[in-house]
Design a protein that fits this description.
The structure is a homotrimer. In chain A, helix 1 runs antiparallel to helix 2 and helix 3 runs antiparallel to helix 4. In chain A, strand 8 and strand 9 form a beta hairpin. Helices cover about 15% and strands about 45% of the residues of chain A. In chain A, about 40% of the residues are buried. By secondary structure, chain A is mainly beta. The first copy, chain A, has 2 domains: about 120 residues, Proliferating Cell Nuclear Antigen (Box), CATH 3.70.10; about 120 residues, Box (Proliferating Cell Nuclear Antigen), CATH 3.70.10. The first copy, chain A, is built from 4 helices and 18 strands. Chain A has a 9-stranded antiparallel beta sheet. In chain A, strands 5-1-7-8-9 form a 5-stranded antiparallel beta sheet, with helices on one face. Chains A and B meet through helix 2 and strand 9 of A and strand 13 of B.
């Protein structure tokens, strides 16, 4: 028996929005520590890693480990049926081939249940080694999304150059070139609005713009985002999910002339 | 001479939105008791019945009965030109082949008139027998619209099952199955938000989802909707139109395996 | 060296919106008196004339006259990257083949620069003779936009008839006919909401609706619009641009049966 209850059902809606552009289907691995999902995107370039801890749920029970393969377009249809103040419960029997989503309205006068067929999906668990990163940038997630969206108009790849003073995003293409510079500013009033950089050594790396843009679909999950960069290892783009977990995206740098 | 004046011109806009998905053209029958419209939808499955009483208008004069066939797409173009606080006057001469819509702004500095050609349409007046219904459900119209929209994602037909305790809407399809249960709750603070059921005997009936969804285009007309159900007679979905009248939609149940 | 600084970068965004439907590319002529643009629209029917005075900028320097040909779709991509409270600086070297747009955030923690390649465009400077107009109508720009949009649903051309009492816009087509009458009302509380007419003699002229609709893309630039009409000369539709200049559109009347 698996059962997980979340008073804030909107969290699961936002998680789904954060992955469904990259993944058509995915396996949710449920154990007594929580729910995990790890998958390469549809074009096998970037990696998505989601972690929702069991203690972050309002109720959580998982008698036996269970892997639930889901079509994310179908799951999105179901989540669209939840109102923002509905309480969500996911349920599955051991060895079940379906999962049930129950939405209860705040006053409990409306109860909806949606039963979805599960899929058998190939699993690929990639070990992600711990790495000391040359630069770790924390910045407002909306600002990161804005920059990725703006630069995507001009070029296919974005160079991220990080120094103690700040971080610069650059691109160029047929129209011309574009540079966006953010200064480190730890002293702003609200921590969420600050740009901070932990630097071991400066880095300049080049990434495919369209994947960065897909990662920013997670923006509604968190007011801040953390970028971890080092030469020759994938960039990590991490969004915290309230007190319940995180979503991380991994993307290898492009090896080409634009990278210095 | 026919002349009808409506200070709240937005009512006619909403009436038009409530019928133009089902009907391409329609005949408005004007008499001294008011304006009536009755028509099968374009695919001849459901029936629309509209009634606007003469005493609901701010001024109303109809010397001779007149039937005005209108193209509803053309009428919609005209109604789009009305601002929400415009005063509307419809005018036609006896035996005229045009109708004129006059919109006056609140301060009368702007006066617009639109003259539209009328059409000769075949008329089919269907007698609708009075029926005692097994169940009459009153519920918030926005909730009904939400449920029809949600379930349409999963299946083509919706089973409505009504008992003393509440009403259940169900469907199923390729993705899986869905059930939405509303409990009777006459005791909520606002009458408009309550779900009430007058039951002679329980009923379970099956309806084509797409017609229910078309009916819910009338949602802006009224905060509540009334569903009248009995075995072997059409469902009636009724929206009151302020103090001026009502719109009713009739839809026969599907006869198939899913109906119990 | 050319450099122009505008604290309200949103003005340039709105100017661009006001011309990009009519023009694919355009030459901005910069001199020490300011920036001017004059061009026939893509179909060579109407004329756009833009004037931004140097003293309207927060900083302005133009050592040598410079004509900068720009692709307006590319420029629109760059302007989309400006936040509404960004400060904008345009820069170009003498004889340069690029122009640079710098956007600085209010707190200066974010600085973006976009360099765009310039184009060589054929120039056609048309002399516009001074004219005494038979009628000059001032009216709320949103009202003019609304009327042009409404009437475009019914016909391809709009007759504007102006007398001392007011101005009437008329059209007709397959559906029927439409007339919108505005009374002169100089006495309303807010000058921006008034309709005023300076008349030497009444005029009735006929114009192509689609061009009028393109002109109304300038509506966000100003709360009022001025229409100057005389027989046998082009209509002038003028929007003031704050304290910095104006945009004027010229459109010749249609010569046909509908014109009286």
């Amino acid at each position: 028996m698996f059962e997980a209850r979340l008073v804030q059902s909107s969290i699961l809606k936002k998680v789904l929005d954060a992955i469904k552009e990259l993944l058509n289907e995915a396996t949710f691995d449920c154990s007594d520590t929580g729910i995990q999902l790890q998958a390469m995107d549809n074009s096998h370039v970037s990696l998505v890693s989601l972690n929702l801890r069991s203690d972050g749920f309002d109720k959580y029970r998982c008698d036996r480990n269970i892997s639930m393969g889901m079509n994310l377009a179908s799951l999105a249809k179901i989540m669209k049926c939840a109102s923002n103040d509905d309480v969500l419960t996911m349920k599955a029997q051991d060895n079940a081939d379906t999962v049930t989503f129950v939405f209860e309205s705040a006053n409990q006068d409306k109860v909806s249940d949606y039963e979805m067929k599960l899929m058998n999906l190939d699993q690929e668990h990639l070990g992600i080694p711990d790495t000391d990163y040359a630069c770790i940038v924390k910045m407002p997630s909306a600002e990161f999304a804005r920059i990725c969206r703006d630069l995507a108009q001009f070029g296919e790849s974005v160079v991220i150059a990080c120094t103690k003073e700040g971080v610069k995003f650059s691109t160029s293409g047929d129209i011309g070139s574009a540079n966006v510079k953010l200064a480190q500013n730890a002293n702003v009033d609200k921590e969420e609005e600050s740009v901070t950089i932990e630097m071991q050594e400066p880095v300049t790396l080049n990434f495919a713009c369209r994947y960065l843009n897909s990662f920013t679909k997670a923006t509604p999950l968190s007011p801040t985002v953390q970028l971890s960069l080092s030469h020759d290892v994938p960039l990590v783009v991490e969004y915290k999910i309230g007190d319940i977990g995180f979503i991380r995206y991994y993307l290898a740098p492009k090896i080409d002339d634009e990278e210095n």
